[in-house]
Design goal:
The structure holds three protein chains of three kinds. Helices cover 38% and strands 14% of the residues of chain A. Chain A is of the alpha/beta class. In chain A, strand 3 (104-109), helix 4 and strand 4 form a beta-alpha-beta unit. The radius of gyration of chain A is 19 Å and the shape is globular. Chain B folds into two domains: 2-51 and 371-422, Roll (Urease, subunit C, domain 1), CATH 2.30.40.10; 54-361, Metal-dependent hydrolases (TIM Barrel, Alpha-Beta Barrel), CATH 3.20.20. In chain B, helix 2 (102-115) packs parallel to helix 3 and helix 7 runs parallel beside helix 8. Chain B starts with a strand and ends with a strand. The longest helix of chain C has 19 residues, at 12-30. Chain C has helices at residues 12-30, 45-60, 112-124, 167-170; strands spanning 7-10, 36-41, 66-69, 100-108, 129-137, 149-153, 160-165, 174-179. Chain C is an alpha/beta fold. Classes of the chains: A alpha/beta, B alpha/beta, C alpha/beta. Chains in contact: A-B, A-C. Chain A binds chain B through residues 12, 84-85, 89-91, 109-114, 116-117, 131-135, 169, 172, 195-198, 200-201, and chain B through 192-194, 196-201, 203, 269-270, 311, 314-319.
């Protein structure tokens, strides 16, 4: 199968076959990470730019290492959140990066759709590293890679996404990806953090953990942005932790071999208890390793696309 | 100079008759409307196959001057209006400075005079459009304001709205209400629903409009003032207005072309040109708007022409300003989506775009009648063209309709007795 | 146009005999299996390496560590392809540093695959030496590379293709030659 995407903007636009190809390709990439010399010459002479309008050390580092392991040159552009609207416009930054002949631009932006707009403005490949509350495709792919490694597949798997669904790009990308691959996805969280008509995406909606987490194979715990509380979206952090923080008690209703994921960074003791975070069910560190492998796979597949838009048969 | 408009189908919104008639204009006045008029001594316009309407009136547009002349000026905006088939416009008061004083109203009137186009300014309902104290309404009316509005914002304080309405009533002018509960809107940038969930964009619930429409109707009933509701976009708002009219409350309403032919599906590729307030709603809402237009709940179609600079719109969706440049696409959009698809007929079109807007603003009656000033809009239903934003006269190129192929373009506009636009020129 | 009729140049029996000979040559040249590892290049080098290892076990009674090398990421023609080919896993679950590595592949042609394999190998460690074993050497080298063990030298024209079919991959053992489609 040939990978025909120019950009990776979200999982909404990927087919199950493409998702499988990415996950399959991540496997040999992970092997490279175990070597003494963690570098192959595949993308030698190609430039990868990370353009981050939101601070995220872990995602940026993961992408940069992925690019470097594949032999690409990387450089990073950071724009402070406070100057997003005051500084150079995204349109002008796009012009600049285009003029500098960047091959891949990896963009993280607080505004949904910014990567889609960028992709229209540049000929470079664009990878969405998270846009507002819209999508975070590489996070979902690494979550899915981790799930596949641990559970062997997706068909019929019960996956609960727990927390602030409204503001979560991780949730949306996971919903797209997992439902495409045949998993049964449910979202669990307070009504104030549940986006309207989410059920129309083919997920079940739960507000209480007793039902929401029952018999699930996987729990993906979302990071709660503490500033949401100030906007009145939940009454207090204490109550949030009581109702939605994943602890040993709540874990009991899930399957005995439940897999616990968290995109990080973790608010320790708030959305997940230290016992669960450091316990045998959690695969949070493995997710980080897998993240590099999945991003290597994406870079490899994206850069493989030839210059032609239409491929001769 | 005598002009003869020959062979067009003349539409009369009052008698509801459509006749093939010749129209003779002499020195800006209509001097004859008959089946055959002798062409001698006249410049003749052959309008076979075209419809001739009383001059369309856009009762809601933003001309941006004073203050934001890079977006639009009174000159460019009125030229765009003429090209778009409008013979008069009412411009909103959210300029910089806002039109909350007679000096700004006078400035607009002066500029309109220079542009030689009928412009009817809408004065601000409250000082600085802050929603706190009524503006000097008497002075605004004296200077030429035909209505009051804080359009762009809602007057959130019901007490202030009440005083504005009571005061406006003394001068017999309408209060035009932009109905939006700003708290319910919050940081919303599009309609709240499945699409906002998919796109991860903050939603504006229909309730933000509905609660304010309900409140404004109730306050209108309390005060007896003429309430005109701008850019209705929700099914519920249509129901509320229908019910208010049934109760005999003096309420009128308008809808924009973009709310009639786009839904929130259009936001899917993050085109900032579809970012507008109120937001594009759902198919059900659009159907309700059609129904409201047909049964008379919605009196008028108005552009809410909101030009912006290209660089202002070429930003992230969240950061882009709201608004669509609509003067030059309104007529063919309405023709293609409402007339061609038989939602409304040409008589209703004459009512919604000429007669009713003029009535709402208290302008001279828009009918084609001997002895009146000539105000005409001529539409060629056979003309089929793509929308080209680069050909807009308006400085605002922010249109989501670029490349749309539409039928029913205006081919001639006569405003205040002068031919302001003719495609054959 | 369809390819001209294939001509068989080796059958299953011949392949078996050739691999036996190569196993003997490897043992002879390296004086046994001490410090020796076999690494097959994906895809058909892998079963060939396995067969040679089995043969060595048969002859010598000792097991030689067996590895799998995927050279896709080291190809020098990636930027010329419309799509990057599928990458598979490299599986060399032992250190090759200070070992004698025998690389195994089915056909030696331009030498570019062997070049990529050499680059890939040195990224995995520093072997004492690297030798190359191939089933078929068809000539037309574009790089200064030669094989240490050759099953069969087959003079070809550039317009011909060599097809190696192996039981493990293709369900049968045979080598054919055919005119390339034009």
């Amino acid at each position: 199968m040939k990978f025909k995407q120019k950009d990776i903007l979200g999982l909404e636009g990927l087919s199950p076959e493409e998702i499988n190809l990415i996950l399959d390709t991540a496997e040999p990439m992970k092997e490279i990470m175990t070597r003494d010399i963690k570098k192959v010459p595949t993308l030698r002479g190609h430039s990868v730019v990370t353009l981050f309008y939101e601070p995220s050390t872990r995602t940026r580092t993961s992408f940069e290492l992925a690019a470097k392991y594949l032999g690409a040159d990387t450089s990073s552009v950071s724009v402070a959140a406070s100057s997003v609207q005051k500084g150079e416009s995204l349109r002008d930054t796009a012009r600049t990066l285009e003029a500098m002949a960047a091959d891949v631009i990896i963009i993280r932006h607080c505004a949904a759709g910014a990567p889609h707009q960028l992709a229209r403005w540049v000929s470079a490949r664009v990878i969405n590293a998270g846009d507002g509350a819209h999508e975070h495709p590489t996070q979902a792919l690494l979550d899915m890679y981790t799930i596949r490694n641990k559970k062997g597949g997706f068909k019929g798997l019960k996956v609960a996404i727990l927390g602030d669904i409204s503001h979560s790009r991780v949730a949306r990308s996971n919903i797209w990806g997992l439902t495409k691959m045949g998993a049964q996805v449910r979202v669990v969280g307070p009504a104030t953090l549940m986006p309207p008509e989410i059920d129309r995406l083919g997920v079940e909606v739960y507000h209480h953990w007793e039902e929401g987490l029952r018999d699930v194979d996987v729990i993906n715990v979302l990071r709660i942005q503490l500033e949401r509380q100030k906007k009145g979206l939940f009454p207090s952090i204490r109550e949030y932790t009581q109702l939605y923080g994943l602890d040993q008690k709540k874990l009991q209703v899930a399957k005995p071999d439940v897999l616990v994921l968290h995109p990080g960074p973790v608010n320790r003791g708030i959305e997940i208890s230290p016992e669960v975070q450091d316990g045998p069910h959690a695969a949070i560190n493995e997710q980080v390793t897998n993240g590099v492998a999945v991003r290597m796979a994406l870079l490899y597949l994206l850069m493989g696309r030839g210059e032609q838009d239409e491929v001769p048969a | 100079m005598k002009y003869l408009l020959k062979g067009g189908m003349v539409v009369d919104p009052l008698s509801k008759r459509v006749d093939k008639l010749d129209i003779l204009m002499d020195d800006g006045e209509i001097t004859a409307v008959e089946h055959q008029i002798d062409a001698s001594g006249c410049e003749v316009f052959t309008l076979d196959g075209c419809y001739v309407f009383p001059g369309f009136v856009d009762l809601h547009c933003h001309l941006r001057e004073p203050g934001e002349e890079l977006k639009e000026t009174i000159l460019t905006g009125t030229r765009a209006a003429a090209k778009g088939g409008f013979s008069a416009v009412a411009c909103m008061g959210n300029t910089k400075p806002p039109a909350d004083s007679s000096s700004v109203i006078s400035f607009i009137k002066d500029k309109a005079q220079e542009a030689s186009f009928p412009v009817y300014p809408v004065g601000c309902a409250t000082k600085k459009r802050a929603g706190e104290e009524p503006s000097e309404i008497g002075d605004l009316v004296e200077a030429g304001a035909v209505a009051l509005s804080d359009d762009g914002d809602s007057i959130m304080n019901g007490e202030v709205l009440r005083r504005v309405m009571e005061y406006a009533q003394m001068f017999n002018i309408p209060v035009i209400s932009h109905c939006e509960d700003m708290n319910l809107t919050g940081a919303g940038v599009m309609h709240e629903g499945l699409n906002s969930t998919l796109l991860g964009l903050e939603g504006i619930p229909s309730a933000a409009e509905d609660v304010q429409v309900a409140r404004d109707i109730v306050v209108a009933e309390l005060t007896g003032a003429h309430l005109h509701i701008a850019h209705v976009s929700t099914a519920r708002a249509v129901d509320l207005i229908r019910e208010a009219k049934r109760r005999g409350i003096q309420v009128t309403a308008e809808v924009t072309p973009h709310h009639l032919c786009l839904t929130d599906d259009a936001v899917k590729d993050f085109d900032t040109n579809v970012k507008v307030k109120p937001p594009l709603r759902t198919r059900d809402d659009v159907d309700a708007l059609y129904k409201g237009l047909k049964d008379g709940t919605i009196d008028a179609i108005a552009t809410d022409h909101a030009p912006h600079r290209r660089d202002e719109k070429e930003v992230e969706f969240n950061f882009a300003p709201f608004g669509i440049s609509g003067l030059e696409t309104a007529v063919p959009l309405v023709w293609e989506y409402l007339v061609e698809s038989k939602i409304i007929g040409v008589v209703e079109l004459a009512q919604k775009m000429a007669y009713n807007p003029a009535q709402i603003l208290g302008l001279p009656e828009r009918v084609i009648k001997v002895g009146t000033e000539a105000n005409l809009t001529v539409i060629d239903p056979g003309m089929k063209l793509p929308v080209r934003v680069d050909e807009f006269v308006s400085l605002g190129k922010n249109s989501p309709f670029h490349d749309w192929v539409l039928r029913g373009w205006p081919v001639m506009t006569v405003a205040a007795g002068e031919i302001k636009f003719s495609r054959s020129e | 146009m369809s390819p001209r009729e294939k001509v068989q140049i080796m059958n299953a029996e011949e392949i078996r005999r050739v691999l036996t000979r190569i196993a003997h040559e490897i043992l002879e040249r390296n004086a046994g299996t001490e410090g020796l590892v076999l690494i097959g290049i994906r895809r058909r080098g892998v079963p060939l390496a396995k067969r040679i290892a089995d043969k060595i076990k048969e002859i010598e009674g000792t097991s030689v560590p067996l590895g799998i090398l995927d050279i896709t990421l080291y190809r020098d023609d990636l930027s010329k392809l419309d799509y990057h080919p599928l990458v598979r896993k490299t599986e060399v679950p032992f250190s090759i540093t200070n070992k004698g590595v025998v690389l195994v592949d089915d056909v030696l042609f331009t030498g570019r695959t062997a070049r990529a394999a050499l680059d890939a190998l040195v990224d995995l460690g520093r072997p004492e030496f690297i030798q190359l074993a191939v089933l078929i050497d068809r000539g037309h080298r574009e790089l200064p590379i030669r094989a240490d063990y050759v099953g069969k030298n087959v003079p070809t024209s550039r317009r011909e293709t060599i097809n190696v079919n192996l039981q493990e991959v293709d369900g049968e053992d045979r080598v054919t030659i055919a005119e390339k489609e034009t």
